[in-house]
Amino acid sequence: MRHVYLDHQAATPLLPEAFEAMKPFFTEWFGNPSSLHEHGLRVREALKHSREQMAALIHAGSPDEIFFTSDGTESANLAIKGVAYANERRGKHLVVCATEHPSVINSVEFLEKQGWTCTRVGVDAEGHLRLQELRDAITPQTVLVAVHHVNHDIGTIQPVAEVGRICSEKGVPLYVDCEASAGWLPIDVDAWGAALVSFSPHRFYGPKGVGVLYRNKKARLVSIIHGGVQEGGRRAGTENVPAIVGAGVAAEVARRDLEARIAHTRELQVRLWDGLEKHVGFIKLNGPRPGPDRISTNLNISTEFIEGEGQLLLCDLNGIAVASGSSCVSKSLKISHVLAAIGLDHALAQGNIIMTLGRDTSVEDVDYVVQTFARIVEKLRGMSPMWDEFQRGIIDSVIRPTGRGKSFSQHAADVSGKSAH
Amino acid sequence: MSETYTLYNSIVMDHFMHPRNMGDLKDADGVGEVGAAACGDIMKISLKIKDGKIEDARFKTFGCGSAIASSSMATELIKGRSIDEAMNFTNQEVVDALGGLPPVKIHCSVLAEEALKAALEDYIRKHPETASKLQTPMPAAA
After folding, report:
1. What is the ipTM of this complex?
2. Global pTM?
3. pLDDT band at B35 (very low <50, low <70, confident <90, very high)
4. CA-CA distance, A387 to A370, in Å (whole number)?
């Protein structure tokens, strides 16, 4: 059986050259970078080199603006809470986009319980944040604007440079979460006017266990993890040296191969979506069409009349690894908040699958996925009462309405006695 | 996917991959369709009833792997049971027969119980004469 990994948004395989570079730092050069002897100084040098590689990837002015954390979630927590606490006396208001990653949304919710307020800027049906709404949301009490570069769910590229202009005009620091874009799209912190940027190397063939936070002098930042004076006093705790070394190599390769990676994944993205659209009826692409507004690696699709976890399981049984934003997949039994924010019908959110391509994905892989997915959909529709009721005109399609029958949501409410959320 | 690493145990996976009694029954005597308000899943069970016994059962499910497995198992378990026995059917039987479900998926087995009971109620509504013979009082009409 062919194995096709289409979950590069969750994790990527470590680059062999990154792995090689990491090895001596587990055994031979095991020192603590805070130590003042040769063992410490040797690894301190390695951290410095990795910082330079990270700075180059995002066009940072100085490697001193790069901080290493344990992962992207910690970087986001540090950016949000660190800036909020540092500016507590100036103001207690934050502005974020409604479709931020949970590491941002939940950090903000934590602060809200402690007396901060936050405005969540809405998005359009394709997930683009509403610039005017963002501009209007900023008040004299606003201490931070947080916007993602690329949406982790639906691949929408946000107008970050425009957001940066608004923030400069208003004198508010901008934090850009680049978790879903770093290593796959050019990032230029200076051109954006960003004060903070975060990302995780494991999304671009680096190791897990290391996150990056870029921060320049536009934003005051206090530490949220207390202990020794590591990372310029901004993040206590012994650095994960081998991971940081591997991450540096991954950043350098990503910078070198960026254009080729984009071209390769874009071609496959178009082929995959064209194939799915042709071979699977009643299927919808969530987010912008493949093009300048969508990252080349992501396809977020909703297949009508069937549920997402069943699709995910059958894909897995056929060697295809995908993700889903269906409520059945989440531990909270709620659909993805991104799908809710773009106003996607609940029935379509239930039938959601996310496929993310990588540099090793091939044309043959994509063609196998199209064929296999069409069979999976057919099998699940054969089991679905909704498909049958659609054929009989009892319920209507959301994607291609026939004008016959009631909506799926209405039907679901009728049979469950309560409306689906 | 490997044999070792599956989201559910082997019984659940087997019922998901090879569902028993999937489909509709022509001339069903009772049909129940219920939805889970919590997650949005929908389950439909059709019954063929003869001489007070469930002769045949079929299901159709819009839902996750454990919802499909729960409805498959529920239809297997209730075949051959009397209406009275079926009225006392609980979701725990489905969970046990499936060798357990993850805590967050227990509601899938509840949905199977509800679909079965909705189908029985539909039958009793259409055959009011059977209601008086029941030892188990009929639950309040949906």
Report:
1. 0.92
2. 0.94
3. very high
4. 21
